[in-house]
Amino acid sequence: MGCGVSQEAPPDLHQQEYFKPAPNGVGSMPPQAADDRTLVVMTSKDTITVVTSPSLVRSAPSQLVEEVQVSVNEEATDKPKTGEEGAFELPEGDFEDGMLGISGLLTGKVFPQEEDSIQALRTTLALEEHFCDEDFPADNSTIFFSERTDADIAWRRPFELVDEPQLFIDGASRRDVVQGCLGDCWFLSSCAAVARKSKLIERVVPPEQPLFGDGYTGLVVCHFWRCVGLGVVDRVASNDRGLPTKDGRLMFAPHAEHEREFWVGLVEKAYAKLHGTYEALEGGQSMDAMVDLTGGLAERYDMEDTENLKKLYTHLLKSSRNGAFITCSRKGDWRNATKADEHGLVEGHAYTVSGVARVKHEEHGPVNLIRVRNPWASGDEWNGKWSDTDSLWSGVPEEQRQKLGVNSLSDGEFWMSYDDFCEQFEEVSVCTIGPDFDNDGTVDHVGQVKAIKGEWVSGETAGGSRNDFEKFATNPQFLLTVEEPDDDDDDGCSVLIGVMQEHRRSNRSIGVKMLQIAFFLYKTDDPDRRLPVTHFYYNYEDGTSGTYINFREVLLRADLVPGHYVIIPATFLPDSPGYFMVRVYSPKPFQLKNLPD
């Protein structure tokens, strides 16, 4: 979708020279504008056209030049479907101030972020009284937002299912994660990915919360990282009574290795509360879930849109070695795939990438491999080349096979060649705790991190895209001052910038619409004032997050020479209200502040 070009006449410029060919060979341009800034006709992400007016402007007695008007035709796109969307897709609507499941919502009230509020609630419970969550009751309204019902569901606390239940037994592991009868493998595959670092999972659900005996209150608190209102962490409190069962077994996230271990089911339950219902978890983006679990930075790579798949493999290999969390998914509709296809894979399904390795085969030489895990944790797994029993493994030294755990893989986990991986999977998502400035798979040293919040206000600061320069100039502007280059770079400083839009819900039956967002980076010589509209008529950006898209967060890696820059977050459509957060990372000192009107 797109809007038309801007039709406003730009301010007159007194040109100093005749037109010359544009550097990209499209159109023509004056080498210098009146304000000594260079005009570039096309960027990598936007189509900028030059329109020559039939009128003539006299800038000097002996020189006639044509008037130049620069206009931008920007477009937006929607994030791709995951294939896991439910039979009753949650309708989208504008946010209403209900704040369901947000910021430690307990019984209809939003408590402060401090842990003291949670502890205060525990102390209000009478002896042997168990917390009951009025906002997420043990009935069908907790499971379904649609008109679906199920009369055979029994709600049980963990101690009613097993003796001496625990949140964790021997820490967290990807093998703990098993998908039940809910289409939320995008979330569970992310849990399995993050579980490679048990401490991170324990940050989501603190282990010192007993599920029986002394200190047990029935209250379990989970922490999710989100940009919500004035806070960045959601503390979601729920009661462990809200675990639905059938025939004495958990319906969702059933037990894997240890039947007394409940962290997966309780984190899934808290995440369902954050979304309103269990059913609302059917369909989602793995990169959003990984950010919710870690507070990290996540990016998605679509196989069809990746020009250099070999370079992507190198990125995945280095990312995996450096502790990144990786998931992948296949095309298709999971509702039509009750079993695996002829390759042993499930369409419309999200998987965890649990390993990346390069082996040396005695006949074929170096081979790039990917280890993938199906959250079903069943026998449904890849049966092609490099599968568990494939004869190709006989050409790999025994020592390397043992190192890769070929003979000890659990059900649903398998190796496959990277070439087959690219053919069978639609996308791969990578999440790191820290920034990867150069996108080489290695989390780089961070000298400084700063965040600043902003708001798009309809009719005031929600100016929309550059299809209308006058309105675009009203968007919030933030000054980024880069102070010095990197130690190994004489000129530039590595900077990673992210703009994250607020993500929250208002009720169980309506999903809040995610805005199509992007941001632009302009160099400025005047750090004391906002960029005026004339700047956008005659200057192009020094960096951009890309096409407007309704992702939670959009990113830009840049190598910036020391100086002053203006960050302008924008929604594609004007007058689209919302809150957002700007995050900036750099190994060197920098300053970040709001540029007021």
The backbone outline, from C-alpha atoms, is globular
Number of helices: 12
How many structural domains?
Answer: 4
Global Rg:
27 Å
Give a written overview of the molecule.
By secondary structure, the protein is an alpha+beta fold. The chain has 4 domains: 58 residues, no CATH class; 192 residues, no CATH class; 134 residues, Alpha-Beta Complex (Cathepsin B, Chain A); 147 residues, Jelly Rolls (Sandwich). Helix content is 16%, strand content 28%. The chain is built from 12 helices and 28 strands. Strands 12-17-13-14-15-16 form a 6-stranded antiparallel β-sheet. A 5-stranded antiparallel β-sheet has the order 23-22-26-19-28, with no helix packed on it. It has a 4-stranded antiparallel β-sheet with strand order 18-27-20-25, with no helix packed on it. Helix 4 packs across helix 7. It starts with 19 loop residues before the first strand and ends with a strand.
Give the SSE layout:
Elements: E1 20-21, E2 28-29, E3 47-60, E4 63-73, E5 76-77, E6 92-93, H1 115-124, H2 140-143, E7 154-155, H3 158-161, H4 185-194, H5 198-204, E8 219-228, E9 231-239, E10 244-246, E11 249-250, H6 263-275, H7 286-294, E12 297-302, H8 309-321, E13 325-329, E14 350-361, E15 365-373, H9 398-404, E16 413-417, H10 418-424, E17 427-432, E18 448-456, H11 469-472, E19 478-482, E20 493-501, E21 511-512, E22 517-524, H12 533-538, E23 543-544, E24 548-549, E25 553-560, E26 563-571, E27 578-586, E28 590-594
Parallel strand pairs: 5-24, 6-21
Antiparallel strand pairs: 1-2, 3-4, 7-10, 8-9, 10-11, 12-17, 13-14, 13-17, 14-15, 15-16, 18-27, 19-26, 19-28, 20-25, 20-27, 22-23, 22-26
Helix pairs in contact: 4-7
